[in-house]
Amino acid sequence: MNVLSDAPPTLTRSLTLVHATLYGLGVTVGAGIYVLIGAAAARGGMHAPIAFIIAAGLMALSAASFAELGARFPVAAGEAAYARAAFGSDRLAVAVGLLVVGIAVVSSAAISIGSAGYLSVFVPLPLPVLVIAVVLAMGAIAGCGVKQSITFAGIMTLIEIGGLLLLIIAGFASDAPILTRLPEIVPPVDSTIVAGLVGTVLLAVFAFIGFEGLANIAEEVREPERTLPRAMFLTLLITTLLYVTVVWIALVSVGRAELAQSSAPLALVFERLTGASPRTMSFIAVVATLNGIIVQIIMASRVLYGLAHQGELPAALAQVNRRTRTPLLATAAATALVLVLALALPLHNLAEVTARLTLIVFAIVNISLIVIKRRDVSFRSAGYATPLWVPWAGAVTCILLLSLDIWNVLRS
Description:
single chain; globular; mainly alpha; Amino acid/polyamine transporter I
């Protein structure tokens, strides 16, 4: 009997820096800019780009913490592993892991609603029917081999980034005063404007969610100590440049009021800038949002797999299919949760819940790194190590933004 052939199948390290970066961009770029730009414009007005810059700065601090922790613990369900290593608590690890699953599932549900909205331009079916079709189809793709599904998602990522670049080129080629109106970005000191900016930052945080998902495919990445940090920072840098530029061009070319009222805001911007049919941008938006669903389901399934593999969830969720080398049951569970939430809650509520849960997890991850670094001062990562002040700053800023959000909600 061949012992090797009877061994349970495991995840394979097949993803390169290109794969990982495309995965990070695929998770990050999507509904956050293609769907929520209208809500961001409504809250932040001409100052919305500042909110995206602030959110990017906050995310950069946590990205540095994730980069070092990913080098120390290159495993699936990374956030849970970090909490366990820092505090020695299985219960806390499970709670953090389930929070991460919640983030991926709620985020994917929000993206599913936006995707169905754009898809309705081409397929005249009721929105719930489109949501069901979209979620089930993307769940099936996520269940394929990880290299195949992420390669597929990577191709879609290139298309969605191409759509944003097309808008940027059209904006600078148009007569819109893109550069001359730049001073309007800076907000005056006013409590009402500050409150709106805080709300916009929360939505912008949702738009940046994704780079941390790279920690949860660590067991499938080649040389994770080097690849994960590079992929995280590349994802954050590229995303920030795209978001800030696109948001500003949209505000200058269309305006706050129209963006806020549009169900397909970037399609409206494209039509206004080029005079061409908005269906082109609607198609790209469908691709962008479908991509976001796939990668979020992949992330949620890998966390479920990781927790089950660590003995914290039913062992069946840790089973890897011999043919696809993916955790099919965990993928099916994540897909079912996405479908339920997408049919039950509106998009903006899902986005805000996702952002709040993300800030909680990021605060825990930063605090975990503080504890680990103080205990293990001799560790030197092969890929990336961050100064101790960075996780402190990351934890404080996450807690501060959550506090400001609570103040904003109570104030309204």
